[in-house]
Queue: 2 jobs
Job 1
Amino acid sequence: MANADVIVIQGSNMAEAHPVGFQWVMEAKRRGAKVFHVDPRFTRTSAVADAYLPIRAGTDIALLGAVVNHILSNGLDFREYVLAYTNAATIVSDDFVDAEDADGLFSGFDPATASYVQDSWQYAGHERDSGSGHTGEERETAAGLRHESHGAPVSQQVRRDETLQHPRCVYQILKRHFARYTPEMVERVCGVPGEKFLELARAWTENSGRERTGCLIYSVGWTQHTVGVQYIRTGAIIQLLLGNMGRPGGGVMALRGHASIQGSTDIPTLFNLLPGYLPMPHHARHPDFDAWVDSIRHPSQKGFWGGARAYAASLLKAYWGDAATPDNDFCYGHLPRLTGDHGTYQQVLNMIDGKVKGYFLLGQNPAVGSAHGRAQRLGMANLDWLVVRDLFMIESATFWQRGPEVATGEIVPEQCATEVFFLPAASHVEKEGTFTQTQRLLQWREKAVDPPGDARSELWFFYHLGRRIREKLAGSTLPRDRALLDLTWDYPTHGRHAEPDAEAVLREINGYDTLSGRPLSAFTEARDDGTTAIGCWIYTGVYADGVNQAARRRPGHEQDWVAAEWGWAWPANRRMLYNRASADPQGRPWSERKRYVWWDAEAGRWTGRDVPDFEVTKPPSYRPPEGATGPAALAGDDPFIMQSDGKGWLYAPSGVLDGPLPTHYEPAESPVRNPLYGQQANPTRKMYAHPVNSTNPSPPQQHDEVFPYVFTVSRLTEHHTAGGMSRTVAPLAELQPEMFVEVSPELAALAGLTHLGWAHLITARAAIEARVLVTDRLVPLSVDGRVIHQLWLPYHFGFEGLVTGDSANDLFGITLDPNVLIQESKIGTCDVRPGRRPTGAALRDLVQDYRTRAGIVPGALPPAVTPGVPVVRPGSTEDGEGNR
Amino acid sequence: MADPGDRAAASAPLPVSAAGTADPATAAGWVDAPPRMGFFTDTSVCIGCKACEVACKEWNGVPTAGLDLLGMSYDNTGALTANSWRHVAFVEQPRPGGHGPAPFAGNPTGDPASAASAARSAGTTNPTGTEPGVLPGGPSAAARMTEFLGMPAAGPPGRTGSAEGRSDFRWLMMSDVCKHCTRAGCLDVCPTGALFRTEFGTVVVQEDICNGCGYCVSACPYGVIDRRVDDGRVWKCTLCYDRIGAGLTPACAQACPTESIQYGPLDELRERAAARVATLRERGEPQARLYGHDPDDGVGGDGAFFLLLDEPEVYGLPPDPQVTTRDLPAMWRRAGLAALAMTAAAVGAFLGGRR
């Protein structure tokens, strides 16, 4: 990041939410980089940026699409890079109909399931290779998540037009798709002044190319939308067109919001993934080990996922040790199976419906931190048992006694059947282990002090819980108990509390030779014959040579700027992914200034400042023989080695469920009619028809005026997420001691709000109150001839701790992105009134009054497809009339 | 290591501030004092994270300053007090940041609210010194805060709203701290010797000696040193005397993620600061300036000095601080002369009477 010549921060308040990482933005600025911040409000990030663009929340694709258009219509792409390293030249099927030509829907839409059949999106000649076929089922299992580390499979044999002139080549399709995304459209949709937009577009393009690079930074301001994945896709398209991937000072930086959130996707706390992005098997689609493995590696596929069978076998071997053999499919039968959507929001609705009996909460405070707080609390109040492990007594442990629903009479403490077990947890300084941060860097932490009282580490808790369950099951002959009894559960322990040895766990994650016990050095050593056991294949090497590589602490001033001897980065201690792209197709650095990894012809190997992200002895001139698969099928100039065609994807023929190209849709709740398409919102967004879940109406539905304002929520530097670690600590609590809402002076005048007075905000879900901060940092925006007012709230507050307040997340309903099932919790519509909210039963009456006025029927869903939009059905050409 | 005992003789009867500006530790009687250490706070890279405030409190065991929402932008600390030894000021300015086209131009904005909301919030402050979250010094302090935050007609430079409404915006942040003056008024007036000059040239209160007389509070030209209401003694930044003595960096500088707070030998810091100002001016920050760096100013230069992006008043700093004991030597001389004259007159009277 420090090497960037321009840095664009969008969908992230990096200075406030990631202040430590932000030092590198400041370092880049010190070296002369220009920093842009695009955000609905002027934040501490904007304060130190060179330029700030106020944007209407939820319209980022319109702005980014206009950058794509600026690049393509002015011929500003890095042509040599784009031709060689992306799929720009690939010809797409004749069956493909773009959303531009169908009022916002792509071809292949199936109205019955509100999802796409992707056959028509495929490359020409491969219409039946979409792999996924129908995406409705993929949506249920958040299948997009598994593409975090690799693209979906496509065939190697594609038709290309190296002149980029073919009307159906990706380059031309992209150009047509974004042609209407002009600076004028940005002004109309986003409220960003055209001149300000052009300042950004010019700086971005002028600081990219052979000699210069630009970096794009986002965080959950992008992801937590019903089109969040497509926001990131648009950013990736820009960075590929400008040649900013795999090069120093380039990249698309996804900032992680807490310590080791990256680690908890690598070794996931997600329902649909196993360690190393191996998908959780599906009960029907993956009946046996081979079916499961082949769905990951696609036997004829290019790239490193070709080794998936070895990664999967080694994982099962790590789980079930001696019991796992090639003959019994490595105990594949022991793995749990997906049967559908088991995401956190579906679970909460299931709890309300009485389908879930017990719940473990670790490092999570959904009563405050998750969307639709009331649904979360009502769900947790309808369990048999709930285990909460936390540092402090958080809202999710006391909702049954002190939550807002107790005041409204919806939860009666004496009758709430949920038995809550609160177990004090050790903090990060009271236990050892690793954190994996944004850069995929694992850093080992030593224990500084013993945890107080009964507080214990997570490792201790799960190890001993597992040990006790296994003791209870010992001698059982029931097949269902085999999975537990066969587990390798033999970590050495130490100390008077029998704390398991965290390094032993890291060693197992790294993997070892099952015969000799030798720790493995690289995932290329993984075998599918039971001779290797690996807890997480992408982490192999972190314990190479029996040394905890994550604990390395050689100071920066004792090594070069890549600092390869500080901690350990996956994969293979590589600090930058796809760094083969930092050299040209012939293997020479694009420029001296941006030299990073290059081909040393004399030595016959790739070399440079980082571990090359390429087979080190494969020359740039290498061309795969006919019929090659796996890594051998990658040519010497295919830098994106985890992609099934070795190319960066400007156009995604499969893998993304809501379109091969990003398209501006309005958020699920918006006061604005989509200015670009008849289709209002993402037609494939995941919605839940449940009486507890209501959505405010958006145009063209009636009564959208009941909720005229846009609100967005995020973090303050002073607090941490749901506040459990900051509202409970005086030196932090006093820095932001009360729940507040930020409004512009114009909205304050309009709604009768006064500085430091009270206001309450109302949605179809809840009404909450907050103190008012009137500030010039928020501005009304002129959007499509209207004035749009945006409000901002911190989401840190709840009813426990030294400082308390209503929870902003109570305002949100549950509508999710179709690819990864993340909730849209960065934008909603609301009304705001001066004064405090009512209390007791009157509070629910107020919300009900709004629902009635807005015509909301509990459990009814807004239409997925906006009435009047023509549907291009799977397997047919366009039917119906366009109405644009 | 110099012997603290050497110091006592030099500090009386003349105020230390009169002893010159060359090296306050030597002037205070330290033999072979180490280089003078200080802070350079570069506000141009401050991101207002308040890590300095928290680190200071954690290391020094400073109690909470209270849980009040002050409404002064993101500042809920209010001021430097006995319970807040670092204080990050947030100044919202409806004025151009000096870069590119104005971001709000073309949007339906009206008059700015920053000044008015600051005034409103300052007025709500409970005027009782170091009570939780409150500015020191009674109701007048609240009024003073109103002034510096830009009440109409009383606003310092850069705080007035522009006639064309608000089309641009700037948000300044500054981590303030005790200045560790070369001529320290607090030190001069301390009757107990609780305040002393360290071998690093910093000024520190010894909590076991302070008797809470409060003379130093009115002697500080910056309004930094302050009495803690519940124990009566004065407290302020020690520049982490315990840490720097052990070769460590003060807690605030250690915690600062952007190197806005830099710690080191004062001479080096001054050089670094001069270069930084030059760079910023080259890059189109004509307002960039240093504050407290000049050994010839009214306090003989500060051990903790700043790079500011606007007039000092905008940040609540006095534009031309003077050591409050500046005139003490002359006063003592005059008092001495007067005493001599009176003695002479009295002696004369007696002598005359004998005749």
Job 2
Amino acid sequence: MSQSVARLTLVVLAAAALAGSLIAQEAPPPLVTPQELLEGLKPDGSRWLMFGGSYTNQRHSPLTQITPQNVNRLVPQWTFQTDISGSRFETTPLLRDNVLYVTGPLNLAWAIDARTGREIWRYRRELPPTGTLTACCGLVNKGFGVLGDRLFMTTLDAHLLALDMKTGMVVWDATMEDYAKGYASTIAPVVAKDKVIVGVAGGEYGIRGFIDAYEAKTGTHAWRFYTIPGPGEPGNDTWAGDSWQRGGAGVWVTGAYDPDLNLLYYGIGNPGPDYHSDSRKGDNLYSDSIVALDADTGKLRWHYQFTPHDLHDWDATEVPVLADVAIGGQPRKVVMLANRNGFFYVLDRADGKLLVAKPFVVTTWAKEIGPDGRPRVLPGHVPDEQGSLTCPDVTGATNFWPPSYDPAQRLFFVNAREVCATYYAWAQEYVPGERYTGGAGQRARGRDMRAYGALRALDPTTGARRWEFEYISPSTSGLLTTASGLVFSGDAEGNFLAIDSRSGKLLWRFQMGSALHGTSAITYMLDGRQHVLVPAGTTLTAWALPDVPRVPGTR
Amino acid sequence: MKWTYSVLTVAVLSVAHLVAQDLYLRIPVETRNPLEGNADAIKAGMGAYRVRCADCHGMDARGIRSPDITQVWASGRTDDALFRTIRNGVPGTEMPSFPAPRTSDTDIWRILAYLKTLATPAPAEAARGNGQAGAGVFASNCLACHSVNGQGGRLGPDLSRIGVARTRTAMTRQIRGAVEDFRTGYEPVTLTTPAGQQIQGVKKNEDLFSVQIMDTGERIQGYLREDMRAVTNEKQSSMPAFGPEKLSDAELDDLLAYLASLRGVTAAEPTGNR
């Protein structure tokens, strides 16, 4: 018997013994099933399996151990640091079976023990050479999708990867597009049935945006929806000449999914060039729109354009949120979106009919949406070389940071910005792979131009504001609400905040040392204790109540 | 074997390091802006300038909180030096660095191409005033709040580089009292304690719950808002206006001549034998 055979025998024996003892202790968890994904956030708090917690993107947890009365007793359990300077988390971590799965900046990802914050595995994908990446707004990532024993992650060089949940090894690698042409991907995938749905960024680089679906098992490309219709397709005539070829309309914020209607809902990015629009006369469909796509085929069911012929870089890449509400006495399945352009919209998600549209910040470019569903645009808001002052600013009334929705209270929560900007525009030649914006926006400043932010609670049936919590400067934090009546938010100065979701009153705060930029806290049960996990800057921090006994192995 | 390899590696690396240092020290890199005069680059540079530079340097580049940069070429700076200033920032000042990959070389050359279109020749302002006399005017009027080369007060901004940072016109406006804006870190604030005592100072930082100040006694201290009856942002700058009744035109000329001569703290030459 050779040495290697002997060793192999030993390994096999050891593995068998190990497996035997594991089974005796606790059965390994079954693979993540489509059913689990359909269930979303369960009252047992055992998991957080997708970007928005559930397909609705409500980010509303049924957990009630942490309450408005005891939230001020939260204590940290551990912190995890990426040790990467200059690049921060914009991710929503996933949790399953007491393990966190977290994507980071620079094509990094981790599996982390949720009990201790200790790394289990780390994945890193080599970045293309310095200077060749075009991701406009940070080398970040917004989180994993999951199905079976696989995690799905988009990359800065516009690939979609499947990683083995247990090892972090690549199972398959699909190229979405050529990153050298200005494509990148930072979006957290949606897993709908057996498909992984993703989109591409690059609206500032003259791309033609799209939403792609891949088979979760194999990585085989299933379908593509171009966010800009090609010649012969309806809507292509909303782009002058050949401007459709590089019109942008990226997709970089995760959509929602209605399994009953089998429809995906995605907000679409801005048309390019952003500010100088002579070359792209027309409405520029489906830029700045919400689209409803058949999840099996990618076929467009309906669309609604928030900002026809956008001149201000007002991507509709805000998180769409699904809910069932009664509007005008009639029960409706709706999709809600607080838009960068300053309006809060509620649409019937079966047919796209506009039900509510109301400004949730000061808007100077339009005060209302007409009966034809188009904004009544006011004069004097066309950017030029001299500059024109418009509210909201380029970053917008809100942006990619996730809102939340409490279905019991029927309230939509959003971190809003009250900021204006001077917009400039000029003609620009298109050079592949280079920034193609045709202008710029400069935030208006000065003593008379107060720029601030506020957490606002909106009634989805009217768009009316129930309450607000004001920040001293605009916050870019996402939100989490719980059934016990809490909203978790953050301010731009680095404070993590717990606010009473019924009244807007501040209950607790902690200085994290870095703002929650585009990230939301998530919450789950672990060993009998409710945890709140906060990604801020380069650090994850887990919080729980000190006086709740640990019961290992229970939820 | 392993040992030999390590020694070799160290030796090779050391030589490489020396060579690199030597190259760095001896060979001046005189790169000219490859995009100067390029119309597209100028337009792109205008956008980048307005978004990333204009807040501090002004839309016309004549300086708001930061230096007037319309005369940088006239004052002898080269394209290459300006490129490095943007890339690396100016340590110890508000000028940040703009590192790759977020800011490419092309981005910087475009900004400089645009800036060149705003450039003006050296000012024809007559060299009025007597700098030495101005130093005296400074000592009796300004030194309590402003420092130069480590001497003086800390309540107001350090002025060791003011001759580079501001034109005569801008300094005149500031001194005569036509101050439009507060510089970050110097916004006047008054805290009122529950006992009614007032603490005046300038705001260094703040958030929803706290404020960090330097008070008029130069004490740096953070306070919780909940411990104060009021935290009031003052409208008037802590810098008094020096009208002609306080400072004659001749005194102002002397003062400006002195201020214009302040070009920054220069590090002492190393004294050891290198």
